Amino acid sequence: MGVALITPFKADKSIDFEALARLIEYQISNQVDYIVVLGTTAETPALTADEQVLVRDFVIDRVNSRVPLVIGIGGNCTADVIRRINSTDLSAFSAILSVVPYYNKPSQEGIYQHYHAIAEASPLPIILYNVPGRTGVNMTAETTLRLANDHPDTIIGIKEASGNINQMDDIIKRKPRDFMVISGDDGITFPLITLGAVGVISVVGNAFPKEFSRMVRLALAGDFEKALLIHHRFTELFSLLFVDGNPAGVKCLLHAMGLIENELRLPLVPTRITTYQRIRQVLHDLNY
C-alpha cells in the first residue's frame, strides 16, 4: 500500500510542516510500503512552485530512505512535464506518477504520444495515472497496454481510477507479466486485488495506514475472508471521504482524529458540517 500524502495547512493557509512531520512518522510507524509525494491528494495545484520544492525536500529529509518515495509529475503540456522531470533532483525517488493530460481532452493517440515522449526522457520508471473523473478523458485499456508493451523498462504500471472494473480487468488479463495494475480507488481495492491488481495508492491510508495495509497484504496473500472483514469495516467511510471532494474528506477525518487542522486552499473548501458529523460517527463506530 502506498499513501497519497496530504499537505496540511495552518489557519493562515501556510504549510503546517510540524503536522506534516507527524503524518510522515504516523505512516512509517504503521508500516506503509511507500509514500506518494505531490499527488492530487496533496493539493499540489494549489501549491506554488517554491512550496512544492519545500514539501518535496521536507518529505525526503524526514523519511530519510526508510520507505520508498514516488513523486507526482504530470500535466497537460508534454514539454513542460519533460522540463520538470529533467530539472528535478529525482535521486531520492523510486518512480514518477504521471497523470493523463487533463482539460485538453487529447485523443488516445495524443495520450500515447504524451507518455511515449515522457518515457523516452525520464530517468525513472513511470506509473501512469488514469483518473477520468478529474482529467475529462479516459485512457482506454488498448492505450494502456500499448504503452506497457512499447516501454516495458520505463512504464512499469498504472494507477487505475477510472471506476470501470471491466476496463481494469481487461488490462490485468492482457498486460505484460511485470506490469503493475494499482488501484486508485480505496473502495474497490479489495475486489481489484482478487482480479490481479498488486495494491493501492490510497487516500484513506492517510488516516488508517495500519488497517488498510493489513487488508491489502491479506488480500495479496489470498486470505480473502480476513481481508473482506477489514474492507467491510471501512465501506461507509470510503464514500464519505469523497462526497464533498478529495482531499476535503480525508482532511476532515484527520482533523477529527486530532492529527491536523481542517484547512484547505481555495478553490477547495472543508466538508459540510453534516459530512463532518457523519465521519465522526463512523470513527466512533470504529472505536477511534
- What's the β-strand tally? 8
Sheet of most strands: 8 strands, parallel, barrel
Structural class: alpha/beta
CATH class: Alpha Beta
At CATH level 2, the architecture is: Alpha-Beta Barrel
Number of domains in the coordinates? 1
Give the overall silhouette: globular
Notes on the structure:
The protein has 288 residues and is of the alpha/beta class. The chain is built from 13 helices and eight strands. An eight-stranded parallel barrel has the order 1-2-3-4-5-6-7-8, surrounded by six helices. Helix 11 packs antiparallel against helix 13. It is globular, with a radius of gyration of 18 Å. It has one domain: Alpha-Beta Barrel (TIM Barrel), CATH 3.20.20.
Question: Which short descriptors sum up this protein?
Answer:
288 residues; alpha/beta; 13 helices; 12% strand; globular
